[in-house]
Design a protein that fits this description.
122 residues, mainly alpha, two-stranded antiparallel ribbon, globular
């Protein structure tokens, strides 16, 4: 069940210290929303919503694959699916077995592009 006023597109509202940012350990705000201009933002946004609802979609599985990195970027991901890589591939293969491998790789590239862009934007 969703908490009242919970927005799955809003990242963790806490601040953290990032020594690699060159700000001498000063606290800074973490990104709070999926920025629509980032590559793959539509996949991540849809995945966060589906994941929060417990829907096993391509997008939710993709967000589950990226959960560790997305968390470090400040996105709150409460319950990622277990074995998301295998589940994502199986879901893609069920739809189109001949294209599953290339679709899987394309989705992973979009996820990595989003993560890199979000890291630069924060």
């Amino acid at each position: 069940m969703l908490e009242p006023n919970y927005d799955p597109l809003v990242a963790d509202k806490s601040s953290h210290n990032d020594p690699s940012s060159g700000d001498s350990g000063k606290a800074r705000e973490v990104p709070r929303r999926v920025e629509p201009g980032l590559p793959g933002a539509e996949l991540v946004e849809a995945g966060l919503v589906d994941l929060e609802r417990g829907v096993e979609s391509v997008e939710a599985l993709l967000v589950s694959v990226g959960a560790p990195r997305l968390r470090t970027l400040g996105f709150e991901i409460r319950s990622p699916f277990a074995s998301p890589e295998h589940r994502l591939y199986e879901l893609l293969a069920a739809d189109d077995p001949d294209a599953a491998h290339s679709r899987y790789n394309a989705l992973i590239r979009r996820l990595v592009s989003f993560e890199r862009a979000a890291a630069c934007a924060s």
